[in-house]
Each structure stands twice: as C-alpha cells, then as structure tokens.
Specification:
mainly alpha, Receptor-associated Protein
C-alpha cells in the first residue's frame, strides 16, 4: 500500500482539495477519489522518508480529537446528515493528518460503512472507549449525545494528565540543575584545586581527592561515560517495551514513595469516569469492564479489572468482585455497591470519579508544596558539599602559608 498526495476538485462544493490517500497504485488512488466524489487533478507518490518532520508536526493531538468530536456532535445534533456533517468538519479542520483521516472516513461512510466501522480503521486516533461509545450511540439513535460524552471524557482525562505532568516537571528541572552544577564543578573548578595543590607539593584531602579522581575520569574518559549511558538508556527503553518491563513500570508507579497516592487516584478516577461514560450510553457491564481494562493504561490495575470481569461473568456483583483487589481504593466498591442497590451504577461511578478527581487535584497541590523544600535541601547539600570540598582545602592552604 503506497501513499499518494493529490489535488482534486470536490464535485459537491466545486472546491479544490489537497490531501493524501493510500492505495495500491496511482490508478487505484484515482478510482478511490472518484468514488468519493472527487475529480483528480494531480496524483503523486509521496516520499515517506522526506515526511518524518512533517508527519510529526501534523500529528493528531488530543485537542484535535476533542475539537473534531465537539464539532461533529453539534452538526449531527442540529439535524444535518452524517456525510454532510463530516464534510463540514473536514473543511474546518486545520490539522492535515486529521483532515486526511476525516476524508477517509467520509469515503467509508459514503461506501456504506457505519461511523464506528469507519473510525475503527484508525485505532491510533480513535481508541476502544471512543469506538464503544460511538457504536452504542448509533445503536440507540443518540449519536450526538454519545459524541458529547466522548469529548467530555477526553477533556477530563487530558486535564488530569496535564496536572500530573505539571507536578512532575518541577522536580525534573531541579534534578537537571543539580546534575548541571555537579558537572560544571567537576570539569571547571576541581582541576584548578588539583593544580594548586600540585604546585605547592601538598597532598589532597580525602574528599577533594575523590572529587579530583572523579573529575579526571569524566574529563579523560567522557566518551566511555556517554557510551555507557547511551547503552543503558537504550536497553532500559527496550526493556520497558517488553511485557515484564511494562508491568515493572506500572507496579513502580503504584508504589513509588510520595507519588503512589497520586497515581492510584488517577487510575481510580479514570476507571470510574470511563465506566460511568460507557454504562450511561448503554454499554453492557462486561463490555465496559473489558474496555476500561485497556483505558486505565496500567497493566496491574487492568489485571484486577480482568479478574473482576471473570467473577462478574460467574454471577458475582461488581462491587464484591472489586473489593479484594489490592490497588482498588476502598471507595470504589463501596460506591458501586450503593449503585447496585439503587439501580444507578453509572451515576455512582460518576460521583466516585468526581471525588477522586478532586482528591487528585489536592494531592498534586500537596506534592508540589512538599517537594519544593525537599529538592532545595538536596540542592543545598550537593552544592554545599562540592563547595566545602573545594574551599576548605584552599583555606587550609592559605592558613598554612600564612603561618
């Protein structure tokens, strides 16, 4: 399958459209465009190697998906036919990659496919939650409402992730500053102390000698350090792509000091919010559990959901199935139990999600407040140790000369 860039005239609007299409050959691409209501004017084979930066610049972001979903929901809710709604959204879409995807979806819809089937051809853009909600909306005749729920779900998840990234950015920056200070002191300052002692035929103090030897190693064998770090990072990345590595990373998130509470609340909020969105749209409980198992984006939590799904399949209630799972916070089965008794599981899951989202906000504020003095102390200790190891020997030399 090759990728072709094309310029064509839209028969419906008489506008010139520029985009890309995937086909076996140039003739097949022309036939595909003609079937979609376009008159091909120019079709060229695209060089994938030359488009790496272009593809990265035009990648489909969460914001692009939210805007697309909101616009489509509004147009369908206003009574416009699906095909016309998609064409209107296509014309309003700025992102070239998203525009191409919308164009392909239009072709599938006009070829007789359902909207959920058309979305299913683009799994990197439309995940399982998105597809399940759209499919349920099509079945119930409430597609516009289902799309609004999808957009709301994406917005809440994006907001939570943005807050967590913000909380983690500050400590990372401070740690980089600490490393930069250490590097500068070792490479620029420590060798001067070594030369001073050498000129005076004095023996270096133990701490200063350790620093000098470390600085000499980094200066003379920097290429070994870079090679070791590069190889280490490469193998770490490869390991984290394996099943064992992913599970190790996910387990670490749930147990890392200071941040474990934040991550646990994140996954509980994501599970209950996604569950509430799916069930309120009419998705069956077992299907909801299978979808949320993927949506939580943590294999350890997902295993707990899968075990609960097996118990539910065997006749147990969802609340009792989740009660003994290690990484499920106590409120989740309690709220679901209330929902089971009242017949409003989706509503109770929504309230539980709101509680955890509020707690997550508070947890992030607490971490941000607590981590600043800790990092400042670490920075002070590191910088103070370096300065002490350099200045104290110099003061002792000066005093010795003075005597």
């Amino acid at each position: 399958m090759n990728k072709y860039s094309y310029e064509a005239r839209d028969a419906a609007s008489n506008k010139i459209v520029k985009s890309t299409v995937q086909a076996e050959s140039e003739i097949a691409a022309a036939k595909l465009l003609s079937a979609q209501g376009f008159t091909p004017l120019k079709i060229e084979l695209e060089d994938d190697r030359a488009g790496i930066f272009k593809r990265f610049a035009n990648r489909v972001t969460t914001k692009d998906k939210i805007v697309f979903t909101r616009q489509l929901a509004t147009l369908i809710g206003a009574g416009l036919p699906l095909s016309q709604s998609m064409r209107t959204v296509h014309d309003q879409t700025q992102n070239k990659s998203m525009q191409q995807i919308v164009q392909e979806i239009i072709g599938d819809i006009e070829g007789g496919r359902s909207l959920s089937d058309a979305f299913n051809k683009h799994p990197k853009v439309f995940d399982n939650v998105y597809l399940a909600l759209v499919s349920a909306g099509e079945a119930s005749g409430t597609l516009d409402e289902a799309l609004r729920r999808v957009a709301a779900q994406q917005e809440k998840d994006a907001a939570m992730m943005s807050k967590i990234k913000g909380a983690l950015t500050y400590p990372i920056i401070v740690l980089l500053v600490i490393v930069a200070v250490l590097g500068f002191m070792l490479v620029a300052v420590v060798p001067q102390v070594k030369n001073l002692y050498k000129d005076l035929n004095k023996e270096l103090p133990l701490l200063t000698k350790i620093m000098v030897d470390t600085a000499d190693f980094f200066i003379n064998y920097w290429w070994i350090v870079i090679m070791v770090i590069g190889i280490g990072v490469y193998f770490l990345i490869q390991y984290l792509k394996t099943e064992a590595g992913i599970k190790t990373k996910d387990t670490f998130k749930l147990n890392v000091p200071m941040f474990s509470g934040m991550f646990r609340r994140l996954y509980m909020a994501r599970f209950t919010r996604t569950g509430q969105t799916l069930m309120s749209t009419g998705v069956a409980m077992l299907d909801m559990l299978n979808i949320t198992s993927t949506a939580v984006n943590n294999t350890v939590v997902a295993e707990g959901i899968d075990r609960a799904a097996e118990k539910v399949k065997g006749g147990k209630s969802l609340s009792s199935s989740l009660r003994n799972e290690d990484y499920f916070l106590e409120m989740v089965p309690q709220m679901i139990s209330i929902g089971e008794q009242s017949g409003k599981i989706d509503e109770m899951m929504g309230k539980c999600a709101q509680i955890y989202e509020d707690e997550l906000d508070e947890e992030i504020r607490t971490i941000s407040t607590a981590i600043e003095p800790v990092l400042m102390v670490v920075l002070a200790v590191v910088a103070g140790g370096m300065v002490g190891a350099i200045l104290f020997p110099i003061y002792s030399l000066v005093n010795g000369v003075g005597i």
